[in-house]
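Quick start: read one record
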Amino acid sequence: MAHTTLHTDLFSKGYSHLSGLLTPQECLELQQHYTDTTGYRSIINMQRYRFGQGEYKYFAYPLPALIQELRSTWYPLLVPIANAWMEAAGIDTVFPQQHEAFIRQCHDQQQFRPTPLILRYETGGYNTVHQDLYGQIYFPFQMVIALTQHGRDYTGGEFVMTEQVPRAQSKAQVISLEQGDALIFTTNFRPVQGSRGYYRAAMRHGISEVRSGIRYALGIIFHDAT
C-alpha cells in the first residue's frame, strides 16, 4: 500500500485495510502458538473483567521473531503519519523514527510490559468496544491481523469501530477481514477537519458476537504497558 493511501485512509476513516499481510501458513503457525505454555506474560479471561467473552494472551519478551518484525517494520512507516496526526490534533508530541527509541521512552515512564497479543473467541464470544492505551505513553495507531477465515472457520465476529460524532450519537463501522488481512487503526481518536480547524473524534473498537466456530486474531500494539 502506498504511503499516501495509508495517510488518506487513516485521516479520513481512522483505519486502513491491508490485504494479505500474512500468509495462511504464518496464520496457522500463530494459531498453533496459542496452546504453548511458555512465551506469554499473562492470560486474560474477558468475562472475568467484563470485557466480553473470550480469552487473550499477551506475549512476553523476547517476542517471537515474526511479531518483533511486524512491530519494528511497521512503526517507522507509521511515524510520519503519527507525527502529522499529533500536529493536527494540537498535541506537542513528536515520535522518534525507530521503534527501539520509542520503547525506551515507554520504559522511562515505567511501561515495561509488552503488549502484542493473540485473541481467541469461540461461539458466543465478543469484545466490548474499548481503547488500548495502557499508560501515559501510547502510539496513535495499532494493528490487528485475522488468523482465521471468516465464513470458513467462523461466522459473525466482525471488527467494529465506533466514532463519537460531536452533538450526535456515535457512528459505527463494521469491517470483515479475510485470513491474513490486517487493519491499522487509531488507538484513541482521529483528528477531523471542522469549520474552526481540527477536533478530536474519540474512537473505540471491539468484536461483534461470533455466531459459530472459532476466531483467532493477532494484535500488534506498538507501546508497552505499565
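Helices lie at 3-13, 24-33, 65-89, 99-108.
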